[in-house]
TrEMBL record:
Domain named Acyl-CoA oxidase/dehydrogenase middle: residues: 161-262
InterPro entries the record matches: Acyl-CoA_dh-like_C_dom, Acyl-CoA_Oxase/DH_mid-dom, Acyl-CoA_Oxase/DH_mid-dom_sf, AcylCo_DH-like_C, AcylCo_DH/oxidase_C, AcylCoA_DH/ox_N, AcylCoA_DH/ox_N_sf, AcylCoA_DH/oxidase_NM_dom_sf
Coiled-coil stretches: none
Domain spans labelled Acyl-CoA dehydrogenase/oxidase C-terminal: 282-446
Positions of the Acyl-CoA dehydrogenase/oxidase N-terminal domain: 45-156
Organism, as annotated: mine drainage metagenome
A GO term for molecular function: flavin adenine dinucleotide binding
UniProtKB keywords: FAD, Flavoprotein, Oxidoreductase
Listed name of the protein: Acyl-CoA dehydrogenase domain protein
SUPFAM superfamilies recorded: Acyl-CoA dehydrogenase C-terminal domain-like (SSF47203), Acyl-CoA dehydrogenase NM domain-like (SSF56645)
Cofactor: FAD
Keyword Oxidoreductase belongs to the record: yes
Amino acid sequence: MSYRAPIADIQFLFREVFPLDRLFALAPFADFDQAVTDAVLEQGGRFASEVLAPINQTGDREGARLTEAGVVMPASFKDAYHRFVADGWNGVSADRAYGGQGLPEVVGAALSEMWQSANLSFALCPLLTQGAIDTLALCASPDQKGRYLGKLVTGEWTGTMNLTEPQAGSDLGLTETLATPVGDHYEVRGQKIFITYGEHDLTANIIHLALARTPQAPAGTRGLTLFVIPRYREGSPSSRTANEVRALSIEHKMGIHASPTCVMGYGGMAGAYAEQLGGLHQGMEQMFIMMNRARLSVGQQGVGIAEQAFQAARDFARNRIQGRDLKTGADRVLIIKHPDVRRMLLTMAAQTEAARTLTLWTFFLSDLAHHAESEIERSVSGARVAFLTPVVKGFATEMAQEVTSLGIQVHGGMGYIEETGVAQLYRDARILTIYEGTTGIQAMDLLGRKLVRDQGQAWRALEADIRRSLQSPELGAVRHLVEPLRKRVDDLHGVVEHLLQEYPNDPYHCGGSAYSLLMLFGTVLGGWMLAQSAAAAARVQSESGSQPFLERKIRIAEFYMALLLPRADAYAKAAAAPSPSIMTMDDSQL
Ligand SMILES: Cc1cc2nc3c(=O)[nH]c(=O)nc-3n(C[C@H](O)[C@H](O)[C@H](O)COP(=O)(O)OP(=O)(O)OC[C@H]3O[C@@H](n4cnc5c(N)ncnc54)[C@H](O)[C@@H]3O)c2cc1C
């Protein structure tokens, strides 16, 4: 299946919707500008189309295998990974102090979208390494940073995230893996399941970040500490000592076959050598650094795979001949002429663009949260990123389910046949609403942590910005898009105020509302993103004349407001008054 990176769409966002010039004016990014970013995106797009996309289907068929020598990756993945590292893609937005190139996070995120579109199984590996880099950069001692960060940044080593255990999935407070102090380090014993890239043969070492419980630690998440557990204790392959951590088995899964999902065993004769990372019993807080970043990146996986599904469906619809033209009666027309096929294609395109804009904007805010000059801007941006993270993760990954499913529908029966590759996209996308916290967990995070905990403060600041933007002269140019949006912002306001009041009295009611609330936020914020994009397109057209690319932005936003934004009404109703059946029915009646 071919893939063409949506470079023009990304450049449009970076120039016209949330201009990266804001970032290039900050000291850490002073060496970069739009031209450098364009060149990076072009090269990244070529890498995605020419190196990663061609091995996506073969990787799916071949899969990762567990052999006596350990986990073996498809040979094509090894070659691609070595090129990925040699070309310097792993560290594009990592800190220069550790050998990264220091580009803004949002540029790295745009590249990551391309890797995810082209090959989700492959791209999961650098996604997790990035999470490990972020966590080590914030929590590790100078000595640990010196030993681990450089090789993770180049990609010579990869990183993993070891949380899940058989009895501890969404509820990590049930973690049992035990870390016993021995001199200056710990010995870890236990088992983790579902560990992505827990073992592979792409690199000489793998650095596991794992949550474990020390003896006599408090129960629940408060007793968890974070540990670094290297696969090999010394870096150099010639002198390395294998640590007591290995893949015991790998899962046979519905999708992402070339991404090894491992059951990891810690400790054999001795425990696995482990170093404490950050504070004792602060593991959960620190792991959240990794998880929050990973949650945004998983949202972006949703965007990436949706883009690929859209491209495949559009290309198919431009070639498949079937049926008559409804109006002219012309026989043997391309299916792209049928209104219902166009509805599906536009649903795919509009959802993908809405989620892309929201996701990249959140990464842009994350750059400001880390690097803005004023303390106040850093803190406001940080609060907004925290607020948006469950929305991005939940909405973009749920959207990917619909879009990859429509991708099959546009293909008709051929979509159900593996050969076309769109069935793989559907299978691969299915994990996205599950790992890094299910949609249900994102919804409860949004309601319980992001709204109730600060009594709606972060949301009200965002709401004020949305209302200001809807009144701005720029959006005045697309008034027909603003009006339907304003009504839904009012509805959203009402639902949030209602739930803030209800939460202490009726948590069941709120738990039943949480999913609808998350989807309401995603749908309204997605609409706001597309309205801004359409307004920017109208502005550029008024300055430099009509262009099909810009006209398309406006048409897509119009379609969204007409056919997709109205979903917000159903979500608002369901969030405000979920059915009493949810909690009044007896378990046996379900
Ligand atoms: C392919 C794959 C790769 C993975 N990679 C990793 C990895 O690299 N590292 C890692 O640590 N883990 C990984 N995981 C594990 C993944 O993060 C968990 O599967 C996920 O968090 C859900 O946990 P669970 O499977 O135990 O489901 P459960 O927690 O048992 O959830 C089952 C259902 O109950 C719901 N539920 C549970 N608790 C609540 C609640 N409090 N409120 C409302 N609803 C609730 C859930 O939403 C879900 O619908 C991976 C899993 C898979 C399948």
